[in-house]
């Protein structure tokens, strides 16, 4: 058995008792135990015997469950296997468990060796559950389930109460515990609002009985860390707590950690690992345990980490319904009304599985009494307002808008050479004192600070530059814009790929060439405005390339512009060639970064510090959460949104190569973003040549893939832009004939007659005061 068991109990059972044992497993999991259950752990298609043996090796105890139809031979075999393991590892607890109605006679011979647990009436029997947990933990059961099972940590400074709605994260909590036992430290990283702080607090509450002290320090800034260390010195009643020189109290608190054992220290919302370096070095596997929560993905010397993902659609729906009190806090999704469950899943999808947004939705539903379906409609119609509402009863968390607006503003204003800061976290209990820095006059700009000035956590000789030039949120930052699904405006609908309406009976399609029903004599035309763009442009020419821009930019400046740009693209798998091929469309800082590999990587790294972006280096794509997109748009004026929509559409057009079979892979990468740009062209009334070309090229490619219903509105809009040009200038657009011809051929593919096509074109030309000579 390993030194740090991954599971606290291995549940052994026969197939006939699977349902009852799973209920028991859920009860134990809800009590904070890490449970090995075959249904939960074994991977389909893998050898199950090896999986079972590995699970038993990784468990601290084994509960052999006996039900109403447990075969005697199976029981003897399982007990024998467990006892064999116990003979090799005496610390392994082997617990016979009699399920309701189980045959007690099977364990008669076993009574001489080990005591056992019996569920006499119901699997939720509190006394039996209590005795089983005590057996798993290896502690006496005491007087009953109401008796304390272990002495709780006498020192517990976690400011967050136990969260009754905490959902899932069992895998992350298990990994966290195993890592602490192995290395002593663990970092929870991820986007703001993904649940890092809540996960750390949940671990602290579940495991407080295992420590003599569970300590919580706010580490977003030096000042808050300094204040909390001073408050800790007071809580510990250290003689230096009230020293005039506050550094003495800070040092005393840190020395206490060196001199004492069996503690858990949580550093919440770390923004600069250098600030907490001396504290992270105190972590040891022998119960000097340290948990760090931070947005940045780089964790320095902390080798073990977990980048928390967003919730799945089902898990998010479960959290929402529990938080909205539509189902009990321990119920499963199956207990919900089917309509509520369906709306909850859709809501979870709309907010990208972000726990903060889901919790915020549940709080709103609970407080207003509206239905889950009504909230979903409100989310579509009034996302800006909803994302900015935390709820009157939820003062301990910032809203989605406040969370991401702070990160985006800090990214735009932070000096990349200085420690990052974050806005203050409201809602700490009054008992958590903030101690001012006594006698700390601010030095003039440019004067360096050293540890001797009373700043905790830095080794001697390390200089620190004062935080200057920290721009706050930009003027005019308001709520998030009203957008629809996955960043599309609410008015934009999606046409499924299968929607190929409009073909006349008897017209067949050949998807490989996309020329359904056309005679061989019909020739396709396609604009070719110059040389083809490469299928996949590499990020940034090299430093010696003549294409490289002479201008350089700070990583934060380029990253801030990048975050504005990605707000107008589909959130997932954004090709980096949009920014390299279309670099000239963006402001100078992003242009410079896109033209130089080092600057491009630095810009990505700056966004990584806040987990605002994710990157797939193999595919050369980046991704952004849709809630970040919504808040980024909310920080712009209408004029700024129009400007960025135009920039992004032009950049996607620049990256979109000519229509050739060899380029199809590039089209597939760009297609979701080109389709979103088509929606932007409508929403912001863009009528540039680049917009017209992008619509035509995208529509043409879709028609080549026999996706006619998707292609038709794009090619129609390209024709309208050409007609608009003719109306506004009095001259025919250079590509008007080509646009009309392509659109005519598409309608033929869709089965329109010549009469219908002429009528369709006349209807398009009419609003622009034009009459087409057919």
Q: What's the short story on this structure?
A:
The protein is 42% helix and 8% strand. The protein is of the alpha/beta class and 774 residues long. A 6-stranded parallel sheet has the order 6-8-9-10-7-11. Strands 2-1-3-4-5 form a 5-stranded parallel sheet.
Shape: globular
* Fraction in beta strands: 5-15%
Mean pLDDT: 76
Show unreliable segments.
147-151, 391-396, 415-550
Identify the strand order in the major beta sheet: 6-8-9-10-7-11
This entry's quaternary arrangement is: single chain
Secondary structure tally: strands: 14
Largest sheet: 6 strands, parallel
* N-C termini distance: 84 Å
Helix percentage range: 40-55%
What does this structure look like?
The strands form 3 sheets. A 6-stranded parallel β-sheet has the order 6-8-9-10-7-11. It has a 5-stranded parallel β-sheet with strand order 2-1-3-4-5. The chain is α/β, with parallel strands linked by helices. It is about 40% helix and about 10% strand. It is globular.
Keywords:
single chain; 774 residues; six-stranded parallel β-sheet; five-stranded parallel β-sheet; 27 helices; 42% helix
Set down the secondary structure blueprint.
Layout: E1 9-12, H1 18-30, E2 35-36, H2 38-41, H3 48-57, E3 61-66, H4 72-88, E4 93-98, E5 117-118, H5 126-137, E6 155-156, H6 170-183, E7 185-189, H7 196-206, E8 213-218, H8 222-235, H9 246-259, E9 263-270, H10 277-280, E10 288-294, E11 305-307, H11 313-323, H12 338-350, H13 355-368, H14 372-381, H15 383-387, H16 400-413, H17 555-566, E12 574-575, H18 577-581, H19 588-594, H20 597-608, E13 614-616, E14 621-623, H21 626-634, H22 638-655, H23 664-683, H24 689-704, H25 708-729, H26 736-749, H27 754-765
